[in-house]
Amino acid sequence: MKKNNIIVITLIVIICIMAISYAAFSTKLNINGSANITSDWDIKITGVTTKNILGDATKAFEPVVSETSVTFKTNLFSPGDSMTYEVTIANEGTIDAKVDSIEMTESKNPAIIFSTNGINEDDVLEAGAKQTYEVTVAYNSNVTSQPEELSGTLTVKLNYVQNS
To answer: How many Å apart are CA 96 and CA 160, to the nearest integer?
Structure first.
């Protein structure tokens, strides 16, 4: 009988321990928290200036600026004429940006050559920083006869993405 009592008491103790353990692990666990992300995406052209004029080149109109694109129209009269513009772009936001692509849309005039200098795809523009690049509009010196159209239009658009 004594052996049976020990077995019964041991089983009761085991069952009690199991019941207490089950109750402890089946308690509902609540985790509450919150997070705020504040960031600002603000990339834009902040200035366009004429840096260098060669020959008789003139502006047909002042450059037209919108956020990350600028349109130039320049009058050129003879080989060697050119005009260089300096464009300033600023990251006034809180997120670093990277140049994803550079789109150049130009009037198709074989007498006029357009080029950019100082900015490339994958360039990083850190938050709060500024960057300048140049756009040059030049009369093609390889042209052997005077074309009918002596002006050309160019739009340069920079497409930015978040730098990772």
So the answer is: 10
